């Protein structure tokens, strides 16, 4: 089973209901993702799938260097390049990520090993790790009675080193309530099953919801990185903020054009995005380097 690195925000993302997560079951063959539509939103998922496949094939000899946000903003690109070449030699390429981090693609394992041991670069203190090394290992168990509290679960769970236990919420009669599913964060490898008392519970991989921008409602980026010049309403697809629909406006999805909101779990575009997300988790695609935006966003975002 795979591990992933969604962070705490993804653990919280399930607050929209049990539809906020999905599970990986063992299969003899992987279902082929149908991406025949020419819609922009489906094109996003098609391009995202191609991107993560390509990235997954070229994951070797990469290192994440952490400078700190304030420090990174002051770094001189030319001086930094010279320092990298001086310390470890020629590299494939490097680029800045968010939160004061840089991704460096190296030529070989020797360079990677040397960089991982470095504490400073160009007289600046750094922390280095391989992409994915800090990924949280998350699984889900279901059918856990509501009457069993979190603290009791922490004490009674056996069969693996579990550091975090969190009851997943669900929506019932318009309200958010606790569900029978529990999210587990493992310290080492994810287990096939865990024991609560004498009862056995199979463990399934946790798959966070695919990123959806709350400005333009499209997938694979967040509002802070959105290139759209105008917002899109998730209810009627109009060019306005949520909750400002005109009187009598019909419900319309701005991703597929269907008669439902952009948040509808049954939306065909959202289903395809979930399949891509599933592929990313099953193939251990690193979240640490998953910051590059889908190319079509750059071209179409400014035109909306």
Automatic annotation (TrEMBL):
Renumbered to this chain, region (Disordered) spans 1-53
Q: Where is the composition biased (Basic and acidic residues)?
A: 23-35, 43-53
Taxonomically, the superkingdom here is: Eukaryota
Protein's recorded name: Uncharacterized protein LOC117559250
Source organism per entry reads Gymnodraco acuticeps
From the broadest rank down, the organism's phylogenetic lineage runs: Eukaryota, Metazoa, Chordata, Craniata, Vertebrata
């Amino acid at each position: 089973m795979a591990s992933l690195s969604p962070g705490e925000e993804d653990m919280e993302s399930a607050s929209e209901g049990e539809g906020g997560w999905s599970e990986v079951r063992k299969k003899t063959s992987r279902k082929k993702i149908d991406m025949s539509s020419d819609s922009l939103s489906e094109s996003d998922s098609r391009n995202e799938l191609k991107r993560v496949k390509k990235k997954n094939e070229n994951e070797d000899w990469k290192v994440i260097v952490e400078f700190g946000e304030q420090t990174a903003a002051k770094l001189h690109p030319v001086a930094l390049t010279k320092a990298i070449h001086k310390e470890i030699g020629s590299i494939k390429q490097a680029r800045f990520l968010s939160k004061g981090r840089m991704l460096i693609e190296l030529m070989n394992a020797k360079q990677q090993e040397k960089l991982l041991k470095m504490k400073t670069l160009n007289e600046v203190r750094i922390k280095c790790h391989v992409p994915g090394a800090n990924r949280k290992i998350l699984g889900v168990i279901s059918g856990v009675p509501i009457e069993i509290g979190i603290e009791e679960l922490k004490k009674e769970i056996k069969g693996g080193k579990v550091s975090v236990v969190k009851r997943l919420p669900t929506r019932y009669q318009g309200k958010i309530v606790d569900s029978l599913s529990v999210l587990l964060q493992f310290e080492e490898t994810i287990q096939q099953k865990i024991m609560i008392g004498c009862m056995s519970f199979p463990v399934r991989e946790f798959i966070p919801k695919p990123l959806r921008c709350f400005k333009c409602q499209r997938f694979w980026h967040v509002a802070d990185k959105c290139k759209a010049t105008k917002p899109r309403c998730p209810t009627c697809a109009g060019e306005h903020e949520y909750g400002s629909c005109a009187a009598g406006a019909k419900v319309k999805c701005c991703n597929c054009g269907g008669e439902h909101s952009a948040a509808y779990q049954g939306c065909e575009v959202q289903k395809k995005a979930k399949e891509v997300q599933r592929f990313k988790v099953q193939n251990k695609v690193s979240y640490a380097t998953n910051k590059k935006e889908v190319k079509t966003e750059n071209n179409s975002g400014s035109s909306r």
